[in-house]
Write a structure and sequence with these properties.
The protein is mainly beta and 125 residues long. The chain is built from 2 helices and 8 strands.
């Protein structure tokens, strides 16, 4: 499983932030509606490696994104979602964190219990 997208609805001072972490899919969340668009795979350019980076000026929330991902393992007041891609099954898995999706654009497998999802899929972040 690969983490391909993080959406933060509310965490600390961060609100309504989409962070794409994969070149193979483009995800957007707006008004609790998830839209996922497939993209052409660009990993050949990087000799099979998928590259992601979170960059920005000081104070824009880079550490808050990482803190949000970590806080998902525990009870949290934060809200958002994590989108994973399973290469083995070519399926998308969406873990909602204190957020109810109104709809989504593709067939995805939803999970409201991230801790169980992470444990059953051997995810370590």
């Amino acid at each position: 499983m690969k983490l391909i997208h993080v959406y933060i609805a509310a965490h600390k001072s961060v609100r309504d932030l989409n962070v794409s972490l994969a070149g193979s899919a483009k995800c957007f969340v707006e008004n609790n509606y998830l839209e996922i668009r497939r993209r052409r795979d660009t990993s050949d350019y990087y000799h099979g490696y998928h590259c992601s980076a979170i960059i920005g000026a000081n104070g824009v929330g880079k550490s808050s994104v990482l803190d949000f991902i970590e806080s998902c393992y525990f009870l949290t007041d934060s809200s958002g979602l994590l989108v994973f891609f399973s290469e083995a099954h070519e399926s998308l898995h969406v873990c909602t964190i204190n957020l109810e999706l109104r709809g989504y654009s593709e067939d995805v497998i939803l999970s409201a219990d991230y801790e169980s999802f992470a444990y059953s899929n051997c995810i370590e972040l």
